[in-house]
Amino acid sequence: MALRxxxxxxxxSPIVEEVARAIGRxxxxxxxxxxxxAALRVTLERDVxxxxxxxxxxxxxxxxxxxxxxxxxxxxxxVHWAECxxxxxxxxxxxxxxxxxxxxxxxxxxxxxxxxxEAVRGFFDLSGWxxxxxxDKAWSDAAYEVDPELDWTDHHSALxxxxxxxxxxxxxxxSTIIWLRWPTQSGTETMPVxxxxxxxxxxxxxxxxxxxxxxxxxxxxxxxxVIFRWKGKNARVGEVPANVRVLEPGPEWDEVxxxxxxxxxxxxxxxxDTARRWRDECTLLELTLRT
Length: 291
Known about the structure:
Elements: H1 2-25, E1 29-30, E2 38-54, E3 57-74, E4 80-86, E5 92-99, E6 105-113, H2 116-132, E7 142-146, H3 154-159, H4 166-174, E8 177-184, E9 187-194, E10 196-198, E11 203-208, E12 223-229, E13 236-246, H5 251-263, H6 271-281, E14 283-289
Parallel strand pairs: 1-7, 2-7
Antiparallel strand pairs: 2-3, 3-4, 4-5, 5-6, 8-9, 8-12, 10-11, 11-14, 12-13, 13-14
């Protein structure tokens, strides 16, 4: 019995990581859900069976065995909530409900997904609209709690953490390498890159196109996940989503490129000469961490 339960937990581990990343992307903070404007609970579910009525026809959504549940609720001014059930083996469900003017509860939207990672994205998109936007709330108003049965570790807290966390700030100031991950047509791409951090502006600058560093499709990037690691240690600090802006040649380009050139080692010539050469050959990216 213990071995079976351990296998179930192992099968759920990638889903828990995906949930942690989604929490981080949307800037949801840990805290007491009882006093929050919006409450997000991450739970361990067993043998889920939900009978839902769509118009006049009821149907049953079942998720046998162990699954991960996501529950977002807003109580004021009227009750709105969403549920999501995530499984590595069965269909994944998202339900959104709201309180009608007569006080009855009504199903606002539902959808099922084949893959749990799709359902995680669907839950945050749908619940953001049907629960938060519908009650004039935002993800910044929400606090999340995790079921103790899920063994939420420091690793998960790092995945869902803020860019203001001490470890991430230390990595930004002391490290010379970060990892970027972004979606591609065939899946995802992950690669280490050297960077320059402008602490005053709170921006990260990454150059693509020189001999030692070329990022595939850099000119088309608009969003990436930034993965931080401790300097000199094979250990992850955290992971934070970032918006990407491609700098256009001009005065801003020259100013930033010269700062980047000053930090780049083993490049002959003056920084302004290097920046001028980069303008014709390279793409300069500005990364803004979201949380």
